[in-house]
Amino acid sequence: PYVEDLDLENLKAAPSKDELESIMHTAKFNKDIEIKKKIADLTATVKVSEDAEEIASQVIQEAKQASVSDLAQYVAFRKAILDLLDNTIKLTADGTYATEKELHDIIFPTNSSSKTTPYEGHNLWVLDERLTFTQHVSSDQNIFKGKNNDRPDIAAFHYIVGFRDSNEKHSPVSIFEFKKPGRHDFVNKSSKEDPFDQIKRYVQSIKDGEVKTIDGTQIQIGDNTPFYGYIVADSDKQIEQWLKRENFKILPDGQGWYYNHDGLNLYVEYITWQKLISDAKIRHRKFFELLGIV
Q1: b or e along 31-50 (b: 16 or more beta carbons within 10 Å of the residue's beta carbon)?
Q2: Which end of the chain, C or N, has fewer beta carbons within 10 A?
Q3: What is the distance between the alpha carbons of residues 218 and 240, in angstroms, rounded to a whole number?
Q4: How far apart are alpha carbons 124 and 63 in whole angstroms?
């Protein structure tokens, strides 16, 4: 929308990407300021002039163009994040994989919470779009009382769907556990890193009232509070055998596993990093196609 407003006279021959982006952002900034001024002038007019409707129509059209530009930038940013994740889960040149922390930090900074990380500072949408505006998120922090050293990778309390209150007993709780690509030692019976056991333990601790919100409010948990657990890791024959032993069932698309724990009112999914990224790309495919960045 800002092509006609670009200051091309001050642009070097063969400009770099950074120089091109700078001149486009300058044009966008100036245009946005102009639109805001027009809206302020229009709404400040006490007497409706004959051309008020025409001016309003023009302002609305310009505002729409600005919104389209903002949306395009936002979608392009999401594409970049998914590409970054896609590259991070692959083997590096020295034959190793990225650490769990590197992957974790892309989605939500470790050792932080929604109190210190605003929604612009994380990418929980990769996991679930509904988590974008979650009010209570803990990332790799000790959220339990006493001497319990358990630290869920990500615990999202009461994400809001529709008009639900932020701390009602029927609002769901989601817990995520990440394991680095190439890792499968957690399937050993003696392992303390068994993600399924970890999630069940976290849920029981939450049900026992051992957790408060970031602001110190008691988490409202009832007998019917739904819990969702997600394990994101790699998959191989050893892991598939472990999932069968734990009575997991294959998801309808055949690319993951699920388990219903009636006693804890807990639903658990085991998915690979590849599936996580693929599903996110599928959700965004139409937007990427419209922008020509598939």
Answers
A1: bbeebeebeeeeeeeeeeee
A2: C
A3: 38
A4: 29
Beta strands in the chain (DSSP E): 112-113, 136-139, 154-157, 173-178, 227-233, 249-250, 256-261, 266-272
d(Cα 143, Cα 208) in Å, to the nearest integer?
Answer: 13
Compute φ and ψ for 25, nearest 5 degrees: -65, -35
DSSP code of residue 157: E
Q: Are strands 227-233 and 173-178 parallel, antiparallel or unpaired?
A: parallel
Distance CA 220, CA 169 (A): 5
Per-10-residue mean pLDDT of the chain, 294 residues long, equals 74 83 84 79 61 72 77 88 92 88 90 81 87 78 70 68 46 88 85 88 87 70 88 92 95 93 94 94 89 80
The pLDDT of residue 72 is 83
Does the pTM surpass 0.85? The reply is: no
Contact call for residues 195 and 150 (beta carbons, < 8 A): no
> pLDDT tens-digit profile of 125-139?
898 888 876 767 888
- The pLDDT score that the predictor gives to residue 205 is 87
β-strand pairing of 227-233 with 266-272: parallel
Tokens representing 174 are 């989601």
pLDDT at 239: 93
CB proximity list for 7: less than 8 A, separation 6 or greater: 23, 26, 27
Cβ contacts of 112 within 8 Å, gap of 6 or more = 139, 140, 141
Give the count of beta carbons closer than 10 Å to the beta carbon of residue 30.
13
Instruction: Using alpha carbons, select from 73, 90, 131 the residue that is nearest to residue 273.
Output: 90
